[in-house]
Amino acid sequence: MKIEAPRIGSFIPPVRTLMGPGPSNVSTRVLDAMQRQTIGHLDPEFVGMMDDLKVLLQYAFQTANELTIPVSGPGSAGMETCFVNLIEPGDTVIVCQNGVFGGRMKENVQRCGATPVMVEDDWGMPVDPDKLEAALQTNPEATTVAFVHAETSTGAQSDAEALVELAHQYDCLAIVDAVTSLGGTPLKVDKWGVDAVYSGSQKCLSAPPGLSPVSFGERAATRIRTRTTPVQSWFLDLNLVMGYWGEGASRSYHHTAPINALYGLHESLLILAEEGLETAWTRHRANHDDLVSGIESLGLSFVVPEAARLPQLNAVSVPVGVDEAAIRSRLLTDFDLEIGAGLGVLAGKVWRIGLMGHTSTPENVAYVTKAIGTVLAD
Ligand SMILES: *Cc1c(COP(=O)(O)O)cnc(C)c1O
Fold it and tell me: Is the pTM of this model over 0.85?
């Protein structure tokens, strides 16, 4: 049988306004950076770009941590990097869960052969520090505390500084999910003493998905170096990755870096540095405040109590009797506008409106408010 060449054209995506839980819209400047020539990942010019990228990442995370790198993989790969390197079989790990992503942390802990102790809060609420303290008291053998700073599944923001401080009081290291917080809401890795943190390229950094910035402090680096068992993942073993990324490292081959994707992340971090972190945080807050006014003027309400709302991810309750999926599909077809659906216990009950990075503008706030108002009125 002869197999003919498939007659398929190039893929030309439609132009969308991305106001869901990520990815956010990627600027032309970042896209331009990504279409530059691919060079070798061991080329001295590329290595120089990576050195700058590390400095830009340290600024975004507000850290001097040497071990600050972009993992080749999405936010989930950053999450897994933290767990497989810091957890050993038999460990006890306290996992705070107030949404979808805390549940994934639990699975990571189990797959590392460790025991998760869950601290549960209602979806839409921040993690309660008192509950964490109670768990730390009843589980003195715990080595690590893990929690999500910005729960993208609900739009709740937890007090990372207070939770990290509690972890340290009880001699635990703190793993913090900052996938949605980085670049959108204050995150101060060194000031707060965060031991291990991971993020993603496609949320408030507005680079394409597929890279996960991570940073590890001295205590975490020491734990990785003094493990008694090998890291179960070859690809994510930081002892090996550091042979390529580390200061003064020989840049030996570990895996082929996603070269053009890294050009994009580099450019997006440069844009963030040019704007200034504090200015970016203020912009996200201001656009969130405008969205609240707009959405409330439509008679809709927010899921998360005001004090714990995340500026870059807004969970809005679906009015009784409204088919939430039908609304989202009309927004996509009539307005080229993507918003997110609810996940887990919030499935069918909320819309998630993202105002992340390049997407967080007054124009987009006005656009999404008008579009939802129009579709709901029909
Ligand atoms: C998006 C997200 C992740 C997962 O990132 P991927 O890039 O989709 O793998 C993890 N945690 C949080 C809080 C997120 O918002």
Answer: yes
